[in-house]
Amino acid sequence: MNRLPAALDLTNVALDAINQYPGGAEKLKKDIGQFPENQKQRLMGLLDEASVNHQINGDLIRLAMQRSAAMQSFIAQQAPSATYDSEGGVPGSVGGVLSRKV
To answer: What is the dihedral of CA 90, 96, 97, 100, to 10 degrees?
Structure first.
């Protein structure tokens, strides 16, 4: 997780370079098709790898966001105000109606 920001930055740089290619990614693939077979296979392999890495980075971002939300929820549940008070009432309620604070 510590290396995630650097990996995302590198991925964004690579994607920006691909998208800035005149004609975009599709034109880049078409132009790569004009290279000799061994170079074409290598370049297409790199593009495929970049695509997979981009998908993985998206999944890692979603997981990090879910983890953060879960941790925030867990911490909020541990707070004293997350339980009933000593008289059986719900914190944040006024006269049986939940306040806007809740």
So the answer is: -40
Query: Would the pLDDT of 102 be above 50?
Result: no
Q: Hey, what's the torsion of the CAs at 66, 70, 71, 75, to 10 degrees?
A: 150
Domain contains 98: no
The tens digit of pLDDT for each residue in 45-82 reads 988 888 888 888 888 889 989 998 898 888 877 776 65
Q: Side chain identity at 80, as an amino acid letter?
A: P
Q: Let me know if residue 93 belongs to a domain.
A: no
Cα 31 versus chain centre, distance? 31
Say which residues have a Cβ less than 8 Å from residue 34's Cβ, sequence separation at least 6: 40
Q: How many domains are contained in the chain?
A: 1
